[in-house]
Amino acid sequence: MKSPSVPGVRRFARIRRGERLLARGALCLALAFFVAIFSALPADRGTEAQFQAVSSLGRGNGFAIGGTPESDGLLSSLPATSTEEETQAWAATLNAQANTGEALASVPFYWAGKVFDALVPGADDQEQRFASRTLGGSARSEYFAHVMVGLRNPLLAALCIWLVVLCASRLGLSRTTAFATGIGFGFCTFFMPMARQPFGGIQATSLLLGAFYLILTAREALERGRRPHRHFLVICGLCLGFAWMSQDNLTYAVGVLVATMMFVLVGGHKRLGELRVASAGKGGEKPRQLQDLLLFLVPLLALAGVGVGFNALRFDSLLGRGAASLDLLGQGDLAPGWAWAGPKQLALHFVSPGGLLVLAPLLVLVPWGWVLSDGRACRFSRLVILLLSLGVFFGGGIAYAGVQPWSFGPGQLLPCLPFFVLIAGVALEQMRTTARGRFSALCLLLFGLLSNAGGVVVNHNSYEQLTAELSTATQSQVALPAMELAYAAPWAHWRIFRHRLAGLGEDFRAEEIFFIDGDLVLGTSPESAPGLEHLTWLDMQRNLGAEFWPIGAVLLLLIGQGIRLLLRSSDY
Q: What is the pTM of this model?
């Protein structure tokens, strides 16, 4: 039985000037928002270890951290009675925190921070004020390097929203729906709070999404009787190679997209050859097919070789940190608490108060969007999305879903999120045709915004510290907090924000935050950035004496340009 079609969805969509202007407008608005809310300073030692690997690379010392007050403090944080073997294991644990791809991509931003520090008047004074702070008892350093490295994720987050809008347009959704899909993904899922942090899965997500868009572009060109642009093929190979270097558990997902692009190129060139023979009696399509395959595969294999080399040097493993490094990561207080999620726990991670459907409510539309997906473009895309998502799940997403204490959302599942939202966008296209559908879609978007905005107004490290102190005080481990309303991060963050908004300081009653009977009082360290000082620009203004007006002017220009582009897109 044929799936019902969706009004407004074209069979083979082309990206016209109006769609491009719309995507650029969304890019400008998203960039202004994420730059305004990002947090440059790692508030926990695990994230700081990742920055220290970048710092060491930027200074030409390789991945092994050392040479700064923070790195020296991290390396010496074990008890004095620790054996040499324990010390070496701890150093290996710290070094393993940084993914190869993320660290390498962050080095240019690190250099930009050092150049800014050297050239801008007054930067030395702000660096000295920053040096008076501490992290785990160690002095701080390299403030503007932290800021520039922290800017990487906001830039990539805006790029992701731009790509979602373009992919939605490529799948044939109307401009209104494509824009709503991009905004819904960026601001109404756990992508928003995770994009604020200096590290995480944002880079890998943007690279997979970019490769997927280039695959759709190549497929559309071949179906219209043209060869894909050569530079698109090269960029797609680079994206997939770098995505694999950026996140260890994406081996299967990257393999799915590699196989998809090869299938598109081989099948597309075969059809082109048949058309040439039928129209002009000429062949010769094989050399072009081979050339396009090489343009795609050579950059991919080159980057894969670089990644394998780094893995062999860092972890004695060709495929990344792998199972051997999980033993290293399980030592010390940086242990992420990875554990296998059984069927019951996995189901609860979807429907619990801090589960996936609460942090990304648009996903409830995925089954409907799947049924509505019609036309060869949508059918092709949903099959690729299914296989890619299975690759992410079985590469680590199922095993560690929702069990990461440092992450506001299930970070291992983040690479799947934009692809599922694209399928949900097909359902949004149908919903926009009725008043009831538009109201329901608006409610889903607002609920997603509400459940995730707590991760913006409160630094997640504050929540982590309070839950850790509660576990110590009650001598009981808070297991899988996402499953209980009292501990679920989306709502506990709002209770922490309410407490701070009332001016009650950093002493929190456990009864108020976690509904624990008694008079137990919990506190956070100064490193958790009380109030809204985890927002970089507010911290610079209040604590480092910096002026806000330059960045404020840039943000206003981005907003104005975004609105102008959105208005212009309606003229085409």
A: 0.89
pLDDT at 438 over 70: yes
Contact 356, 350 (CB under 8 A): yes
The band of 325, judged by pLDDT with boundaries at 50, 70 and 90, is very low
CB 95 within 8 A of CB 310: no
Neighbouring residues of 517: CB distance < 8 A, sequence distance ≥ 6:
511
Contact (CB, 8 A) for 190 and 360 = yes
**Residues 6 or more apart in contact with residue 363 via CB below 8 angstroms:** 356, 357, 420, 421, 424
- What are the E-state strand segments in 381-520? 507-509
Q: What are the φ/ψ torsions at residue 509 (nearest 5 degrees)?
A: -80, 130
48 backbone dihedrals φ, ψ, rounded to 5°? -65, -35
Contact 150, 41 (CB under 8 A): yes
Q: What is the pLDDT of residue 334?
A: 38
Residue 440 token pair: 């329901």
Whole-number pLDDT of residue 427: 93
Classified as helix, coil or strand, 138 is strand
Of residues 175 and 322, more confidence is placed in 175
Task: Indicate the burial class of 241 (C-beta count within 10 angstroms; 0-12, 13-18, 19 or more).
Answer: buried
pLDDT over threshold 70, residue 126: yes
Place of tokens 């700064």: 68
Nearby residues of 1 by Cβ (< 8 Å), 6 or more positions away: none
Q: Are 242 and 207 in contact (CB under 8 A)?
A: yes
Structure-token match 């701890």, residue found: 90
What is the DSSP annotation of 21-38?
Answer: HHHHHHHHHHHHHHHHH-
User: How confident is the model over 251-263, as a mean pLDDT?
Assistant: 92
The SS3 assignment for 433 reads coil
Amino acid at 436: R
pLDDT at residue number 115 = 92
CA distance 460 to 193: 9
- The count of residues in the chain is 572
Does 278 have pLDDT greater than 60? Answer: no
pLDDT reading at 501 higher than 50: yes
pLDDT at 536: 86
Q: What is the pLDDT of residue 190?
A: 92
Cα-based torsion angle of the residue sequence 391, 393, 395, 399 in order, rounded to the nearest 10 degrees: -170
Residue with tokens 């997209």: 257
Are the C-beta atoms of 311 and 364 separated by less than 8 Å? no
DSSP state of 135: E
In sequence order, the 6+-apart residues with CB closer than 8 A to the CB of 190 are: 359, 360, 408, 409, 410, 414, 417, 452, 455
Query: Which candidate, 362, 422, 425, 360, places its Cα nearest to that of 388?
Result: 422
* Residues 542, 462: Cα–Cα separation, whole Å: 19
The H or E element spanning position 139 is strand 138-139
Residue 263 exposed, middle or buried by CB count within 10 Å (0-12, 13-18, 19+):
middle
Rounded to 10 degrees, what is the CA torsion of 397, 398, 400, 404?
70
* pLDDT at 352 (0 to 100): 78
